[in-house]
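call fold(seq) -> tokens
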Amino acid sequence: MPGLWRSFRKRRAAGFPFSLREVDSPDREAAALFQRAFKTPAPAEPRHFVAMFAGPDAERVAGYVHFSSFDDGVYLIGGLCIDARVYRKLDDAQRARVASDGSLSRWLLGHSIAALGSKRAVFAYTGDTRSRRDVFALGFVPTGSKFLLVQWHDARVELRDELVRRVGLRGPF
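ret:
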């Protein structure tokens, strides 16, 4: 695995059972998780993040998400998926620690968005109830489009409507 990691961002709070890694492309395990979740191959476009669980026998991919760049400093979230099989391996204390952050998907989204660096906006396109709950908890707001949500950062207020319109024209991502 040494050549696989472009940048290694490890974020593990005390007692938190997962760490975050940004990778050049999803490895076999992350690609298989994506394939199971979406019935399609994992995307090639950057940026890719994985939540890693250090189990007693080996480190395992527990979650995956990718971001594509729409415009300078504007990102689109895609392909968030969690491996419930890994999650079920947690003990009660680990589950309680994850629950204190909301959920593993919320933790993965929050930390991967933070790792993107400077940004104007991050968009999500989802109708899934759990995903919507998590992105709303992270400060996303509705855009007026049924499934399109946005987390504003440094986008100028007077340009936001036009940015929402342009992202909305793209359709699902």
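The chain has six helices and seven strands.
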